[in-house]
Structures are given as structure tokens and as C-alpha cells.
Amino acid sequence: MIGASLGRNLVAGARLAFFLPLPAFDFRVSSLDYAALVAFNCVLWIAVAGVRVGFAGEIDYSALLVYLATVPLVLAAALLVALVYGTQQRLLAIAIALTASDPVFELVGLALPYLAVPLGALGALSTVLLLGWIWAVAVRAVAVSAGRHRPQLYQGAAVVSVMMAIAFFLYPQTEVWQPPEEAEEATPLAGERLFHLQGQLIERALAAIAPGREGRRELYFVGFAPDASEEVFLHEMRFVKKLFDERFGTAGRSIALVSSQDALEEFPIASVTNLARALERTAQAMNGDEDTLVLFLSAHGYPDHRLSAVQPPLELASLTPTALARMLHEAGIKWRVIVVSACYSGGFIEPLKDANSIVIAAAAPERTSFGCEPGRDFTYFGQAYFRDALAQTRSFTRAFELASDIVARQETAEGLEPSRPQMWVGAALAERLKKAADTPQKE
């Protein structure tokens, strides 16, 4: 008997949720019917939470108390609606109508993560749409169980709106089924061999930087990718270093510092300390009045213009524009081309610009750049500048113009807020570039 009544209430709740014709007498109304409906919904809620985590982990029983606290909230709302309509005897009917559609919403909520991707932009609003649907069904529950009389229906809608706001904003948002705690992954650098190898890598890389030759304008390359959280920075740095070594003649005069879990035996870690050492050693090797440094930085950027620094288990200092400017000044490097591929990287231009520099940034000081997600070999700007533009020209400034156009077209096609790449060209370096290509003569 209870099972049959529960089934009738669940069917009525589904019809209510999908706005199908539904007379009030389709609901079965008694204290026992309401208790059975609440119990069924609670079991389904636990089962759906279990499905989300593959039934791994354990039940958080404190979350059950939060769920049960919604019962008096619904009953209080039903009582207020009944008083508004002047039909206190309809209290249970209203409470059952407000509760009967919950299984539909639980199942739809379970499917939402799978629907968000094919729905595209609409999928991002799925939670908002679900809440709007729940509210509309709650208002319909009032109309079906208590009547469509106005202004009572408007007052009833206000009551269920307050009920939902209390449940959403004041009740703790908890998951009843807690997934198992993930074991902390071992970080490769924690191993003694790799830890000590890092000291050898930086010493060998610094020692391998060849001195400049008198009477020859030569390029030196320093790369700095301090964020191991995304392998795109590693892939990009490998390509750029190879590009300069092979096409711009920096082989034997280049060093790349990269933080990465997968390249700890290939590159020295990109710490601020290692960068300062690399710039100092490069300055010692260069002929100051003849040679030019190309410095490439690739990482996540922050609104305060710091570059992200991630290399577990180490705690690394972030690189700031002022710190970089101080390093270059102390090293005494005169001619320099600096390319910063990061969000908010335009903030590097003001502290670094001088008459002897080109400073190129992937984004304006207040804008983000794109392409740092997993699975990519380049950021958007890195791909446009190094892979595409420098394949067409050896001029760093012309390459910037080409890359800016490529990035703008890509961002427009994808509906992204323009990153607005920036460039500063110092007057002395601009004059120098009028007399020669952007790069010194290749070997």
C-alpha cells in the first residue's frame, strides 16, 4: 500500500517537473506518505552521490543531518503557504508537492557534467538553469496543491523563493559521499640522485657558454620557464632554444632554465637564483658593445605581474619585473631583446624598457593571454611569434607585428577577450637595427 502510494507520488512529481497536466488529487496525502517520500529521496540522494565518486570513499554522516534539516524547512514553507491560502488542512499536500519532484532534479544533476561539454556556452550556465527550473516547479507545486488564486499564488511564490534561498545560502553545502583521499604523489626532485644532479646541470650549462668573438655581432640566448604545473612551458622552451641555436646561431651561447617534473635530467631548474647566475655568466661571456641577449620568459602570469614559480617540493620565489630589471642592470648586459609570454606580461615593459632594449609582451598589463592548457606544445603567443612569425622573417619587430595579427585573429575566432600583445623598441636599438638585421651575422 505504501509502495503504491509512493509510486503515485513519484509519477506525479515527474509530471509536475515536466509541466505535464496534473490534477491535485494525483498526489497521495498522509503523514506516512510524506515520510515515505522523504525517506526515498534521502536514499536516492545518497546513491547519486555514490555514483559520482564510483562508490569509493565513505559516507559523511554529518551531511545526513544537513539533509534532514531541510524537512522542517519545507514543512515551515508549506505551513506559510497554507496560511496564505487560508487552508491549513492542505499543509501536507503542499509539502508533498514541494518534495515529489526532487528525484527528477537529483538525476538531472547527476547528468549535468556530461551535458555541459556538448552544450557549449549553455553548459556553463547549467547550474543556474537547474536552479531556475527547480524554482519554477516549486511555484507550480504551490499552484497545483493550493490553487491558482491571486494574490495568494504570488505570496506562495515568495515563500518558496525564500525557502530556496535559505537552503542554498544558509545551509552548509556538503557531499554525503566523500571520495577517498588521494595519496600524495612522490615528486621526482625529492629523490637524492635528481636533487644532487641539479647542481651539476647548472654548473655544466654555465660553463658551456662560449665567449664572444671580437668584431662579430653575436646573439646569446637565455630561456626561463619557472612553472612545472603545465608542460606547455617545457615544450615551448625546447622549441625556442632549438630555433635560436639552429636559425639564429646561438649554439654554444645559450642556456635554458626549466621547471618540470619530466625534464629534471635535461634542464637546470628555473629558479630566480639560477636566472641571476645565468645572466651574470652570459654577461661575462658576451662582448658588451657588440653582442645581444635574447631573453625568453614563459609561465603563468599574475595580475600583480609576477611570474608563477612551481617546482614541487621546492618553494620558489616568483620573478617580478623589478627583480629582473635589477638582475640585468647588475649583470651589465647592454643590448637585449626580452620576450615575455604570460598573462598580464605587459607589466614587464615599464620596468625593463630603455634605449638599448626591445621588450615584447604577450598581453597588455591588465589582460590575460591564452594557450596554457594541458596537451598543447605552445601558448597562443609563443606559437604565433616563434613558430609562425619567425619562420617568415629574421626581424624581431616585424615578427611581433605578424604574431599580433595571428593572435588577434585566433582570439576573435574563439570569442576570447583580446590579449593585446605589447612591444617597446628603444631608440638606440632601433637605430642599430636600421643598419643591420635584428640578429647579428650567423656563423
Would you kindly provide a written description of the structure presented here, covering whatever features stand out?
The protein is α/β, with parallel strands linked by helices and 443 residues long. It has two domains: 2-178, no CATH class; 188-435, Rossmann fold (3-Layer(aba) Sandwich), CATH 3.40.50.1460. It has helices spanning 2-17, 31-52, 61-85, 91-99, 102-119, 121-124, 126-146, 152-170, 192-207, 232-247, 272-285, 321-331, 349-352, 380-389, 396-413, 427-435, and strands spanning 58-59, 177-178, 219-225, 254-258, 292-298, 335-341, 357-361, 422-425. α10 links the parallel β3 and β4. α1 packs parallel to α5, α2 (31-52) runs parallel beside α5 and α14 packs across α15.
Tell me what the CATH architecture of the largest domain is.
Answer: 3-Layer(aba) Sandwich
Structural class: alpha/beta
Shape: elongated
Query: Based on DSSP secondary structure assignment, what is the total number of beta strands?
Result: 8
Strand content: 5-15%
Please give the oligomerization state of what you see. single chain
Biggest β-sheet description: 6 strands, mixed
Low-confidence stretches: 437-443
- Measured as a percent range, the helix fraction is 40-55%
Could you list some keywords that capture this structure?
Rossmann fold, alpha/beta, 6-stranded mixed sheet, disordered C terminus, elongated, two-stranded antiparallel ribbon, 443 residues
What would you say about this model in short?
The protein contains 16 helices and 8 strands. With 443 residues, the chain is of the alpha/beta class.
